[in-house]
Amino acid sequence: MRAQIDMQRWLWLLVLACSWWAGVTFLRDGSVWTGTLMLVVGSAMAWWISPWRGGRSPRHREVMDLPSQDRPVVVYWRPGCSFCARLRRRLGVEAAKAIWVNIWQDGEAAEFVRRHNDGNETVPTVVLDGETVTNPEPETVLARLSR
C-alpha cells in the first residue's frame, strides 16, 4: 500500500517523460500538430498531478502552531484528487477562507491524514473546529466557512 502511494507521487514524471518522448518523435517524423498536441496535453496532465501544482502550501506544523481560532477549517488535499477538486469548486470564493495543506508536499501532513484514515491517504480530510472529517459534504464545510 505504501509503495503504491509513493509511486503515485512520482507518476507525473512518467507522464511528462512519455508525453515529451512521444511529442518529439512525432515532430521528428514531420507530424507537427500531433507532436505539439502530445507535448501540450502531456505537460498539462503532468502539471495537474504533480505535487507542486498550486505552489507551496502551508506545512502541517505551521498550521498546528496557529491559534485554534485562526484555523477553523483546514483541508488536507493532494493534486489530481477529483474529490478535492469537487470540494474546492463547490466552496467557490469561500474556499479562500480555508487553509489548504498539500499532503504530497509535507510528510507530516500525509502522516496526519493516514493516522485519521486507517493508514490510507484519503483526501480531502478536513478539520472543522478541531474535529477531523474525511470527504465531508461541501455544504458542511461551506456552512462552517460562512460563519
Detailed description of the structure:
There is one protein chain. The protein has 147 residues and is an alpha+beta fold. The chain has two domains: 2-49, no CATH class; 60-146, Glutaredoxin (3-Layer(aba) Sandwich), CATH 3.40.30. The chain is built from six helices and four strands, in the order αααβαβαββα. It has helices spanning 2-28, 32-49, 60-65, 82-91, 107-116, 138-146, and strands spanning 73-77, 99-102, 125-128, 131-134. It has a four-stranded mixed sheet, with helices on both faces. Helix 4 (82-91) runs parallel beside helix 6. It is elongated. The chain starts with a helix and ends with a helix. The relative contact order is 0.13. The mean pLDDT is 89.
